[in-house]
Recover the amino acids of this structure.
């Protein structure tokens, strides 16, 4: 599905992304990657998904603070900041999430 989306320029909106990824977000690796970018593991994951270019995570939060964090990371990326520009970092995050092909440069 991800190959089809990317090859055909289809944008996908993911929902329950954080809920489905709680174990990965709790790992030391994700926490370290996020902290290095000044993000929470959750906003780091949003940045990762947006860095793929075809996934937009939907935030279902009702917490104003979390929504502000979600919007802030989106604004950083829309402003041109490449939060996850390193291919190796993108591949590592994909593996941690169980999406080994998502970080592949060929995808």
């Amino acid at each position: 599905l991800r190959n089809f989306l990317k090859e055909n320029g289809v944008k996908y909106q993911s929902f329950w992304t954080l809920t489905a990824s709680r174990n990965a977000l709790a790992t030391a690796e994700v926490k370290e990657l996020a902290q290095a970018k000044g993000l929470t593991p959750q906003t780091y994951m949003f940045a990762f998904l947006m860095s793929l270019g075809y996934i937009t995570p939907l935030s279902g939060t009702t917490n104003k603070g979390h929504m502000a964090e979600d919007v802030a990371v989106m604004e950083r990326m829309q402003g041109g900041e490449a939060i996850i520009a390193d291919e190796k970092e993108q591949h590592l995050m994909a593996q941690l999430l169980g999406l080994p092909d998502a970080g592949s440069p060929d995808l």
User: Anything to note?
Assistant: The first strand starts at residue 12 and ends at 14.
